[in-house]
């Protein structure tokens, strides 16, 4: 048993600890409330001005459905948020640009509601296993699917207007979906988990720029990259940062 002399000190310590816990909880709640209020401000400002681009990246809304009636918005950005359901914005069929990277989206079938999309950023969707809906967006000219498991890239085969694709950090079993792609000019493969055979890249007739991570390349892969560089492709290498 603690001596009576120490009891007041012990009780005071508990009181301080409890107060600290309360302050932390209140701070988190205040931060969330402020972020929602700030994001709502962006929504209302866009509604009044009838903006074409609504950027809610890193924001927070209690109900994303409140933007669905904004027919003047053609570019909607909601990456790095808790956005989780494309049906909330299904009425925005006019969208030409959609950013949903690093969100909680699980099902991409809702992309069928946006047939006019020319740009889609849907990277790092950790809850998505099926990307076939992306392959039906035949008007896409720019696509980002980084940090995803994309198999043989067959999802890209029908995207015959695609000019730029970002596959940074993605995992691929083969590059067959890129074979003879008629319009691709820029491919980002920085930090990607590539198959050993990347010779498919040599079949892309209009390839102008390729980004890769140099220290991940095998001799066979490096030989392909060297051939592409010699043929006029601008090869951009990820720069290693040495931390001492």
Radius of gyration from CA coordinates: 24 Å
Q: Report the mean per-residue pLDDT as an integer.
A: 91
Shape: globular
For the secondary structure, the number of strands is: 9
Oligomer: single chain
Q: Kindly, what is the distance between the CA atoms of the first and last residues, rounded to a whole number of angstroms?
A: 51 Å
Beta-strand percent range: 5-15%
Outline the biggest β-sheet: 9 strands, parallel
The helical percent reads: 10-25%
Low-confidence stretches: 1-5, 7-11
Alpha-beta classification? alpha/beta
Order of helices and strands: HEEEEEEEEHE
Question: In words, what does this structure look like?
Answer:
By secondary structure, the chain is of the alpha/beta class. The protein is built from two helices and nine strands. It has helices at residues 7-49, 219-230; strands at residues 53-55, 75-77, 97-99, 119-121, 142-144, 164-166, 186-188, 209-212, 234-237. The protein has a nine-stranded parallel β-sheet. Strand 8, helix 2 (219-230) and strand 9 form a beta-alpha-beta unit. The chain is globular. The N and C termini lie far apart (51 Å). The model is unreliable at 1-5 and 7-11 (pLDDT under 50).
Set down the secondary structure blueprint.
Layout: H1 7-49, E1 53-55, E2 75-77, E3 97-99, E4 119-121, E5 142-144, E6 164-166, E7 186-188, E8 209-212, H2 219-230, E9 234-237
Parallel strand pairs: 1-2, 2-3, 3-4, 4-5, 5-6, 6-7, 7-8, 8-9
């Amino acid at each position: 048993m603690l001596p009576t002399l120490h009891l007041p000190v012990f009780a005071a310590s508990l009181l301080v600890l409890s107060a600290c816990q309360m302050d932390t909880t209140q701070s988190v709640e205040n931060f969330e409330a402020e972020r929602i209020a700030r994001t709502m401000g962006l929504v209302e400002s866009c509604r009044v001005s009838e903006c074409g681009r609504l950027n809610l990246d890193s924001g927070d809304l209690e109900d994303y459905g409140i933007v669905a009636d904004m027919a003047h918005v053609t570019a909607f950005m909601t990456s790095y948020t808790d956005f989780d359901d494309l049906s909330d914005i299904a009425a925005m069929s006019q969208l030409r640009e959609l950013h949903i990277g690093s969100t909680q989206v699980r099902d991409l079938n809702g992309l069928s509601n946006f047939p006019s999309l020319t740009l889609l950023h849907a990277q790092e969707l950790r809850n998505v296993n099926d990307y076939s809906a992306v392959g039906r967006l035949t008007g896409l000219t720019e696509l980002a699917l980084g940090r995803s498991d994309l198999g043989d890239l067959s999802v890209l085969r029908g995207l015959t207007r695609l000019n730029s694709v970002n596959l940074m950090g993605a995992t691929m079993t083969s590059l067959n979906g890129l074979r003879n792609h008629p319009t691709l000019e820029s491919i980002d493969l920085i930090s990607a988990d590539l198959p050993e055979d990347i010779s498919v890249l040599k079949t892309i007739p209009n390839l102008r720029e390729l980004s890769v991570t140099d220290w991940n390349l095998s001799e066979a892969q490096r030989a392909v990259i060297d051939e592409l560089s010699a043929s006029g492709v601008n090869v951009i290498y990820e720069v290693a940062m040495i931390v001492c």
